[in-house]
Design a protein that fits this description.
By secondary structure, the protein is α/β, with parallel strands linked by helices. The protein has helices at residues 43-54, 78-90, 93-109, 124-135, 176-186, 214-231; strands at residues 4-12, 15-23, 29-35, 58-62, 113-122, 140-144, 163-168, 192-197.
C-alpha cells in the first residue's frame, strides 16, 4: 500500500472539526498529532504530515482554527501574515488544548495506529505540543520554535513524558533569553532535551518560507526521528 492522505472528522465538545490524515506505506505505525503554525493546515503542514507518514507514522494534523476559519490556508507574507496573527489571537488556548486531546483520542482509535503517539508542533503548534505534553494526552512531545513556552513554565512540573524542543539561535521572534529560561527550568529533567541550531531563524524548518535553513531542518528532522524511535 502506498502512503495515502484524506481528511477525517474529529468530534469536539461543541461540534465536529476535521484533520488531515496521512497514512504510511502499509497503513500502520505509531501515531503523530501534527500541530499547525498560525497559517492553518496549509501546504507546508500537509507536506510535513506526508513526510512523517513516509517515515512510517500515522499522522493526523487537526484544523485548530475551525471555529473561526475552517480549512483556511495562509501564506507567509503581508496580508496573510496579518490574517494569521488575528486568527491566533482569536483562538482560545484552552479550547485548542481540548481539541488536541480529542484529536489524540481519535488518532489512538484508528485501526492503523499500533503503539504510542506523539505530538509535534511548529511555531504556535510548538507551544501547543508542549501543552499537550503537560496535559498528558500524548506519550511524547516535540516542539519546533514554540513561541511563548517561556510564559507557560507553570506547566513544566506537569510534563512527565519525553519532551524535545528545537530552537534557532538567530530566531527574531523567540529571544535567546527565553530559550535560556526554558533550558534552566528543565536542566535537571532527564526526559527533556533541547536543540539549538546556530544559523537558524524562526521557521527554519519550513521550505515555503524565506527563513528556511536546509541544514538545520535536516538535523532537526534527524533528531526528531531518533527521539520518536526511542520513545514510541
Amino acid at each position: 500500500m502506498e502512503a495515502t492522505s484524506t481528511w477525517i472528522d474529529i468530534r469536539a465538545d461543541d461540534g465536529v472539526f476535521q484533520g488531515y490524515l496521512a497514512l504510511p506505506r502499509g497503513g500502520k505505525g505509531p501515531g503523530i498529532v501534527l500541530l499547525q503554525e498560525i497559517f492553518g493546515v496549509n501546504a507546508h503542514i500537509r507536506s510535513l504530515a506526508d513526510q512523517y507518514a513516509a517515515d512510517g507514522y500515522v499522522v493526523l494534523a487537526p484544523d485548530l482554527f475551525w471555529r473561526n476559519e475552517p480549512h483556511i490556508e495562509l501564506g507567509y507574507e503581508d496580508d496573510d501574515w496579518s490574517a494569521a496573527v488575528k486568527l491566533m489571537q482569536a483562538t482560545d488556548l484552552t479550547q485548542a488544548r481540548s481539541d488536541i486531546a480529542q484529536a489524540a483520542k481519535a488518532l489512538r482509535a484508528l485501526p492503523g495506529v499500533n503503539g504510542k503517539i506523539a505530538s509535534i508542533g511548529y511555531c504556535f503548534g510548538g507551544l501547543l505540543s508542549y501543552c499537550a505534553g503537560a496535559d498528558g494526552v500524548v506519550d511524547a512531545a516535540a516542539a519546533y520554535y514554540g513561541g511563548g513556552i517561556q510564559h507557560h513554565l507553570d506547566l513544566a512540573g506537569q510534563v512527565k513524558l519525553p519532551l524535545q524542543m528545537h530552537f534557532g539561535a538567530e530566531d527574531s521572534h523567540i529571544p535567546a533569553a527565553a530559550v535560556q529560561q526554558i533550558a534552566e527550568r528543565f536542566e535537571d529533567d532527564s526526559n527533556v532535551e533541547i536543540h539549538v541550531y546556530p544559523q537558524a531563524e524562526h521557521g527554519f524548518n519550513c521550505s515555503h518560507r524565506a527563513s528556511y535553513h536546509q541544514r538545520s531542518a535536516a538535523q532537526a528532522h534527524g533528531n526528531t526521528l531518533t527521539f520518536l524511535g526511542e520513545n514510541l
